[in-house]
Amino acid sequence: MKLKKLFTILTLVLAMGLLSACAMGPRVATIPGIAATEDAVYVSYGPYLYKATGFESEKLSEAWRYPEKGSQSMQINAPVLVDGKNLIVGDFAKVLRTINAESGQERNAFTGASGWYQVQAVRAKDLIIVPNNDKSIYAVRDNGEIAWTYTSSFAYLDHVVVANNLVYVSCQDKRLIALDLDTGAEKWVAAFDGALPAAPLYDEGMQTLFVGGLSRSVSAVDALTGKILWSSNADGKMASVWGTPVIVNGSLVVSDEKGQIFGMDPKTGTVQWVIEGSGKMMAGPLAIEDGIVVVTEDGTVKAYKDGALKPSWTQSITYTDKKDIQVFTTPVLAGDTIIVAAQMDRNANVLLVGIDQNGNQQFTFTPEK
Q: How confident is the model at residue 247, as a pLDDT?
């Protein structure tokens, strides 16, 4: 896929449901960003960040929303970083905010970037590291000072990964780069044939990074040197990979935009098994106990367990109008509960669904108007 086409797709996705009318005036619908702890889910969507609690109920309660009154200039769709008692999240108003997780009150803000934030921040030592749409990655100290910045040719589409005192970054300019954690200096660069929209998977035991991209392939990269160990397009069967792979039961599991799921030998890239696609899939796989969960754009959730190539269970997310449901966000875990975030273009709203690992729906959450 050419970068011009990629930018067009991303612009459309980020602007989905442009100015949908509602009682409080127009809202811009964005891709929901979700993060969770064992007793709370945080969803970034449109002009608000919501905290939802009450997992024992069929419908979660809204503990708070930030800010209390939304505005068109402060759209939020980056997932929060849960950082102890604080939440750290950037917005479209070019501000990286620290918010008290209990009260929802802002504690401080970093305003040193010139573009908006659309990806999650990462904690490393005394640094908060976060890409910005101004084409820079910022490493910000706890006191608000900038430790270093790294600037590239394009904005970034996913969070960084930190290991080995290095910061690993997937880039739209077809590169995977490693930066020195303390200085931001480039340590190595691995070049590919297509843009890399998702963060790499890092495996500590193998000291290897696994990354998929729009070249319709997945690759293994030595995390210390940047040497590409292998690349595979599954004999030409793999489509573009938009999500981060996972390793489950010794297999590297990769999902592509056609909804195909590949199990691969992480040491060689040899395809071990394939599950044929059942629908378009932008979200990556979620690793659960003894298996994975995947979700298609139309809200069909499937679990594959114990090496089975047929679903252990299937759950279909429904709402008043089935055509409203669209899922682009990779699910997350809240304890043992699978959290799926869907968006409804016509209502400019977001729906969270909690599913247990046997496929039973536990709860839903839709923010109040």
A: 97
* Residues in Cβ contact with 285 at an 8 Å cutoff, skipping those fewer than 6 apart: 243, 245, 246, 253, 254, 255, 261, 292, 293, 294, 330
Q: How far apart are CA 234 and CA 223, in angstroms?
A: 23
The predicted-structure confidence for 205-232, as pLDDT tens digits, reads as follows: 999 999 999 999 999 999 999 999 999 9
Strands 146-151 and 136-141: antiparallel
Peptide bond into 67 cis (omega under 30): yes
- Find residue 344's DSSP bridge partners: 325, 349
| Chain centroid, CA 69 distance in Å | 26
Report the greatest alpha carbon distance in the chain: 55
- 121 and 109 Cβ atoms separated by less than 8 Å: no
Tell me the pairing of strands 41-45 and 33-36.
antiparallel
- Scored b (16 or more CB within 10 A) or e, 268-298 reads ebebeebbebbebbbbbbbbbeebbbbbbbb
Question: Is pTM beyond 0.70 here?
Answer: yes
Torsion over CA: 265, 209, 128, 115 (sign): negative
Q: Is 295 left (phi over 0), alpha (psi -120 to 50) or beta?
A: beta
Residue 129's nearest CA partner among 117, 121, 120 is: 121
Please report which helix (H) or strand (E) contains residue 10, including its range: helix 3-14
Handedness of CA 73, 45, 171, 256 (dihedral sign): negative
Q: Are 140 and 122 in contact (CB under 8 A)?
A: no
How far apart, in whole angstroms, are the C-alpha atoms of residue 360 and residue 87? 30
The confidence band for 28, taking pLDDT boundaries of 50, 70 and 90, is very low
Q: Which two tokens stand for residue 251?
A: 């297999």
| Residue range 96-105, pLDDT digits in tens | 999 999 999 9
Residue 309, number of CB atoms within 10 A of its CB: 11
- Nearest one of 355, 367, 298 to 58, comparing CA atoms: 355
Report the C-alpha gap between 109 and 65 in whole angstroms: 17
